[in-house]
Amino acid sequence: MTTGQIIGVIVGVILIFIWLGNFRGSGLTFGSAAKMALAWVGIFAALFVIFLFRDDMLNVWDRAKAEITGSAVASSGGAMRLRKDEDGHFWVTATVNDQPVRFMIDSGATNTTVSKETARRAGIKFPDEAQAEEVDTANGVIKVLPSMIASFRVGEIQRDGLGVDILPAEDDTNLLGMNFLSSLSRWRVEGDQMILEP
């Protein structure tokens, strides 16, 4: 038995004697005193369980909040849980060079792409038009301007120097592609949720 345990037992015995002394002088019956003692034991047990499982309870609260609000939730270890939008896609708001930018996650896109307007707003460097490259997309061949995002963050997931293609057309959809997804240790879809693990 350790010193701490011995001190705990001594303090417990002293508290029992104090309680018994108060019990005799209070006029309470043994039955009502036992009920009161059990109530206090129950209160302390409930507080102990809440303290012991506080992280799990916070995760359950975060998941419930995500289901109600439809927002992304950071889980333990920096993982993100995203809820499928009504349009059937997964959307996330990332921080691009300190600017909030909304992305649709597209595992069919090789690279992350942003619109001209997003690139201007987020301070992404525009290459010369002569450096435009042709890429195959689901909508056919298009020209893009390859560049790089200096600082890119989704929740707690940070990816500096992320390659990005700037769409020359004024398209307002930003796509988070496989160059980001493949940098993760793992990503998966479970029902109507996508989990991104750093």
What are the SSEs and their pairings?
Blueprint: H1 3-26, H2 30-52, H3 54-69, E1 73-74, E2 80-83, E3 91-96, E4 99-105, E5 112-115, H4 116-122, E6 133-137, E7 140-149, E8 152-154, E9 157-158, E10 162-167, E11 175-176, H5 178-181, E12 186-190, E13 193-197
CATH superfamily of the largest domain: Acid Proteases
Mean pLDDT: 83
Low-confidence stretches: none
Q: How much helix is in the residues?
A: 25-40%
Distance between the termini: 43 Å
Determine the number of helices (DSSP H or I, runs of at least 4 residues).
Answer: 5
What would you say the CATH architecture of the largest domain is? Beta Barrel
Give a written overview of the molecule.
- By secondary structure, the chain is an alpha+beta fold.
- It folds into 2 domains: about 5-50, no CATH class; about 70-195, Cathepsin D, subunit A, domain 1.
- The protein is about 35% helix and about 30% strand.
- The protein contains 5 helices and 13 strands.
- The chain has helices spanning about 5-25, 30-50, 55-70, 115-120, 180; strands at about 75, 80-85, 90-95, 100-105, 110-115, 135, 140-150, 150-155, 155-160, 160-165, 175, 185-190, 195.
- The strands form 3 sheets. A 5-stranded mixed sheet has the order 9-8-3-4-11. A 4-stranded antiparallel sheet has the order 1-2-13-12.
- A hairpin with a 2-residue loop joins β12 and β13.
- It starts with a helix and ends with a strand.
